[in-house]
From TrEMBL:
Pfam families tied to this protein: ACT_AHAS_ss, HAD
Domain named ACT: residues: 361-430
Coiled coil segments of this chain: none
EC class name: hydrolase
Organism: Hufsiella arboris
Keyword Zinc set for record: no
Protein name: phosphoserine phosphatase
Gene Ontology molecular-function annotations: L-phosphoserine phosphatase activity; magnesium ion binding
Signal peptide (from-to): none
PANTHER family: PHOSPHOSERINE PHOSPHATASE
EC annotation from Swiss-Prot or TrEMBL: 3.1.3.3
Reaction catalysis annotation: O-phospho-D-serine + H2O = D-serine + phosphate; O-phospho-L-serine + H2O = L-serine + phosphate
Amino acid sequence: MKNYYIIDFDSTFTQVEALDELARISLKKHPQRDEIYKKIEDLTNAAMEGKLSFRESLTGRVQLLDATREHLDLLVKHLKKKVSASFSRNKTFFKKHADDVLIVSGGFKEFITPVVLDYHIKKENIYANTFVFNDEGKIIGYDDSNPLSQEGGKVKLLKELQLPGDIYGIGDGHSDFQLKEFGMIKKFFAYTENIERKTVAAKADHVTPSFDEFLYLNNLPRAISYPKNRILCLLIGDVSEQAIQILKRDGFSIRHKQSFEEKYVADAGMIILANGEIITDDQLQRAAKLKTIGYLGNSRNKFSHELCTKQGIVVFDDTKNNPRNTEFIPKRVASFINNGDTYLSCNFPNLQLPKVDNAHRLIHIHQNVPGIMAKINQVFAKNNINIVSQFLMTNSFIGYAITDVNTEYDKQILKELKQIEHTVKFRILY
């Protein structure tokens, strides 16, 4: 049985509601623009939460737009910059599954099509409403015979399509959930990267904070091996809101606490410590998932750098306590998680790495003993793996090896790499 993936557009594929953004463009000089914006937003939310019929909401919003074809051109340029981050980095999935992905939206083809075509989505797989224009190019309505302009429109459309396989739906609104409610899809994934509608999320088979999470759950091609929303980033003490927002925008799961609570020791993947905070050796030894620590000041004498090195934990700090560390430290920590960069680490061999396309990056941290690289490369050779690029740096305690390999390989090699004697930590970065 073939799988199909039904993806919503507004607040899912893109970060925003397109009609709301169109209103901001078309009404920019209108004396009552703020009042009209609010009415349009209220109509959008009422429909998405199931409090108002979609037809009523759509009619009300289109009537308030006062928009033209020229405004739509500006909107398309804007929307191309507002594609959700986790969709934007996963073009490989769309390319490999071009026949299986359908964009199904209550929005309009005039602005959806030029945005999603850049992602290998076929024009014939885009289902949305269409505007009606007058002779001067002004929007005066929409094609009300289109099932997607009606209440329950997505359900009606899928009944007409009769897709021969299992269907998975991804969206943020009530109309997306209706596909599961009426038995049209196998599973509904409530998408919350941009907005979480509690009434919708409560009914979903899964809540997916990113498209990476959806791809991970369904073992589909993805840009990163492990969703960042599953990496717990623990911020301890007086950490600035600026630092918090940098990491939150990057998609990490954020917990801000005043002390390193015992319940987080085993699960923290990243830690940001405010100046003056400490971690004990016992906590470090039990922090099995911890990959990196960022310290907003001088971390000497606050915790053991030597123990961190032996545990494979990369430390970044700012010994001069520079005001820039509120941005610098979280960005360095994120860069290590995202790209494997250890540049300016205070305890690890320094590597600043180029991003390599069409490859998987494997990070192998090991004790600095003779013969480890030979064993790593023996695993690749035995499994006929083509190495695209490879980097190695060492210090007195550990070796840090980065290998970029072609994307086609037997996953058995991952187990073999983890089982090499003297391995400290191993992960697939992307």
